[in-house]
């Protein structure tokens, strides 16, 4: 599909971002600051999905064209994180990718996996405990460092039993960026596999799989990739993939040319090269055709430009919230920052709602005025993407200021923290 964004517009200038925004009808419905929950759907993705559904409705599905879409989308995703298409497979979601990778390792009893249970999303916790129950390995959890994953604590926790370290590149709350490349270098040096949960980073942060020295990267398509739930990608580094035996063996996971219904020699067929061995049965075609135009747009925009624009919006928002006297978790923007800004100072355990009366009052005021955001871990979470602009910041900040003015005493309680 041809993207109508002119090549010449793809620069880090307002007209380009204006053109991008115009392709997200939902962007004009009030500031949409909830990428971390899910993105607005990219119009071109929806058009591609409609065409796919139309073809299904009238019985005109071209299976060959669907397989071509699978391969071109695999290649697009590989370009996005700068690796080879053979290093990419399709998954259902982040949990699925982590479980597929983890269960393909030949574990020995007593092996360990290092994670930070306090900060990781359940998607990067449960699968490891599942693997622990099944294979008798230990999950070693390091403590959080005031809301940050501690590089030092993770490295200290690695010993001769450690096979895998699993971290998120950007946490879902408080939304801090983790220095993945520094951990990657240490893991590679010590022969430990590094899995990165890129659910919050994909499509926003400028990711380079080689520079991260990651062995596996998992992501899904409903956030930074601006598409649907139920589809994910997994990168597995070629040399590592060749050593893994996926829990499922499937027609698409073996090295066989020819029709999908052709049965080769299931007892001895070689695995498909690299991460392709993790592909299972027919693909999520609706998800794949929907995400392709969004990845194409991100590649045209350039990941450096995207990161710089989106992180820039979040930085400005954080500074303006701080200037109003409200606490931003982590303080002034710095190297820990991302596209996520969390407001509050108590990292708790509540999601979607909060027992903190003032926080809830501010959340309700913003929601009633069509500012879309979420509550995670007791913090108000605002998150930005390429469809946002300065006017979203102005509008959201104005409603926060209005709430402070109207709720003098409540606001003072919140700003005191
Ligand atoms: C860091 C992180 N990992 C994983 C997920 C989701 O995992 P899954 O795709 O398995 O539902 C999210 C949010 O939805 C997340 O923020």
Q: What would you say this structure looks like, in words?
A:
The chain has 417 residues and is α/β, with parallel strands linked by helices. It folds into 2 domains: 14-25 and 30-41 and 302-416, Aspartate Aminotransferase, domain 1 (Alpha-Beta Complex); 56-298, Aspartate Aminotransferase, domain 2 (3-Layer(aba) Sandwich). 39% of the residues lie in helices and 11% in strands. β2, α5 and β3 form a beta-alpha-beta unit. Bound molecules: pyridoxal-5'-phosphate (PLP). The site of pyridoxal-5'-phosphate has 12 residues, from α4.
What is the topology?
Elements: H1 14-21, H2 43-57, H3 63-81, E1 88-91, H4 94-103, E2 112-115, H5 126-135, E3 138-141, H6 151-157, E4 162-168, H7 180-190, E5 193-197, H8 209-212, E6 216-220, E7 232-236, H9 238-241, H10 285-301, H11 303-323, E8 340-343, H12 357-368, E9 374-376, E10 379-383, H13 390-406, H14 408-416
Parallel strand pairs: 2-3, 2-4, 4-5, 5-6
Antiparallel strand pairs: 1-7, 6-7, 8-10, 9-10
Helix pairs in contact: 2-10, 3-10, 4-5, 11-13, 13-14
The structure holds pyridoxal-5'-phosphate (PLP).
Pyridoxal-5'-phosphate (PLP) binds next to helix 4.
Keywords: Hydrolase, Lyase, Pyridoxal phosphate
GO molecular function: hydrolase activity; lyase activity
Protein name: Selenocysteine lyase/cysteine desulfurase
């Amino acid at each position: 599909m041809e993207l109508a964004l002119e090549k010449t517009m793809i620069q880090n200038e307002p007209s380009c971002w204006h053109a991008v925004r115009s392709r997200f009808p939902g962007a004009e419905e009030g500031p949409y600051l909830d990428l971390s929950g899910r993105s607005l759907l990219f119009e071109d993705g929806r058009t591609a999905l409609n065409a796919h559904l139309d073809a299904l409705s009238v019985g005109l599905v071209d299976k060959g064209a669907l397989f071509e879409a699978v391969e071109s989308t695999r290649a697009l995703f590989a370009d996005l994180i700068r690796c080879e298409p053979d290093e990419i497979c399709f998954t259902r979601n982040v949990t699925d990718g982590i479980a597929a990778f983890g269960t393909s390792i030949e574990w020995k009893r007593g092996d360990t996996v290092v994670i930070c249970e306090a900060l990781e999303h359940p998607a990067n916790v449960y699968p490891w405990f599942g693997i622990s129950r099944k294979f008798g390995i230990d999950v070693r959890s390091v403590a959080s460092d005031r809301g940050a994953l501690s590089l030092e604590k993770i490295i200290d926790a690695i010993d001769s039993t450690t096979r895998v370290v699993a971290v998120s590149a950007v946490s879902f709350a408080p939304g801090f960026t983790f220095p993945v490349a520094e951990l990657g270098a240490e893991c590679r040096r010590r022969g430990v596999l590094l899995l990165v949960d890129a659910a919050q980073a994909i499509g926003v942060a400028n990711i380079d799989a080689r520079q991260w020295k990651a062995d596996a990267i998992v992501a899904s398509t409903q956030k930074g990739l601006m598409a649907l739930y139920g589809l994910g990608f997994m990168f597995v580094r070629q040399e590592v993939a060749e050593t893994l035996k996926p829990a499922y063996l499937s027609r698409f996971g073996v090295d066989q040319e020819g029709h999908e219904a052709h049965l080769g020699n299931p007892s001895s067929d070689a695995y498909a090269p690299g991460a392709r061995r993790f592909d299972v049965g027919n693909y999520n075609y609706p998800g794949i055709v929907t995400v392709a135009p969004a990845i194409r747009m991100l590649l045209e925009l350039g990941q450096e430009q995207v990161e710089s624009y989106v992180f820039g919006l979040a930085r400005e928002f954080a500074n303006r919230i701080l200037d109003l006297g409200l606490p931003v978790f982590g303080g002034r923007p710095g190297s820990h920052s991302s596209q996520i800004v969390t407001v509050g100072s108590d990292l708790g355990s509540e999601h979607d709602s909060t027992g903190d009366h003032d926080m809830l009052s501010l959340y309700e005021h913003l929601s009633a005025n069509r500012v879309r955001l979420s509550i995670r871990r007791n913090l108000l979470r605002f998150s930005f993407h390429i469809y946002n602009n300065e006017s979203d910041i102005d509008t959201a900040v104005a409603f926060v200021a209005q709430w402070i003015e109207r709720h003098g005493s409540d606001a003072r309680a919140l700003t005191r923290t």
